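re the bet — no i am not wrong, look at it urself. input seq straight from the record:
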Amino acid sequence: MVKSRFDLEHIIDLEKWHKLQDSLSLVTKMAIITVDYKGVPVTKHSYCQSFCQGVRQDSYLSEYCQKCDARGGLEAVRLNKPYIYLCHFNILDIAIPIIVDNQYIGAIMAGQIKLRDTDVPLLEQIVSRPTNTETNGKFKALKDDYHSLPILSYEEVTIIADMLFHLCTYIVEEAIHKNTTLDMYKKALSHDINQPSLDTISTSDRTYRNIQAIQNELSSALIETKVKKSASHPFTSSNPVLQPAFDYIYSHKNENFTLQEMAGRCHISPSYFSRIFTKEMGENFSLFIARLKVEWAKQLLETTNLTINQISDDLGFCDAGYFIKTFRKFENLTPSVYRNAYKNP
């Protein structure tokens, strides 16, 4: 492979990128690491699962992990899209290619999860590892950690993969822009070293802000998908401590819910409730409730002839004006316009 004039350190500020990588990992519930074209990590793992930590600390098994990263990345660049596969322990991973100047220079690797679905496309185990007594013993020692791996649906995995792919595409575009700008700046300096130039504006700071914006879009999209899926049916929390709150919310749609009241129903302090709720749902309590009520309102607008005032009352809004304002915040149109658009496509 011909060495590119770009490398990952020129494309992204690795220190800043790792902070964003940590945030993306929290939102997606996936471990994430960035590797070069050989599969060698250039960042630390973001929230590496305890099972995978144990495997990667083993000198023999870690070689297979690195082979999975390398081959997964190469397969992703061959397909020019996210590649979803199984590692040598049959754990699901995703490779997102990073390509600059038509050259593959690395990948973002995400995963360390198990699938909830049983009827999914057959996934390839990209690296096979011969079994032996020693490795079987190591697996047994980590068996509890293996069973505690996060579980996602295949649909959630594909949504995350597509969004991370768009993020990688953006990074490539910023890389080209950044290097072009730096070249122009160097040329300007060669003509007049004392001449001030707009090119001195930090492109790395701009890149950081723009990636943060994409991160926020990713978070919002994933949260919206989760709320849409749970709007029709009671939500089952992965944290059983929160379940009494969700049970009450879904059986009392006409009420206004406060964080303090829901914390009391879960028999925990409001501060602890707020912290674990945000971790579970990806956004704070008040924003989640507003978004959920808008989803319920959309169902009523689509399936009933209730007036806007009636829907507002049925969902516990203080008045129709506030209901319309909240609905517009999430949907960028009023409830009436939404109903007309739905019923008259």
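see?? Residues 154-191 form the longest helix (38 residues). told u. also The chain has a mean pLDDT of 80. so pay up
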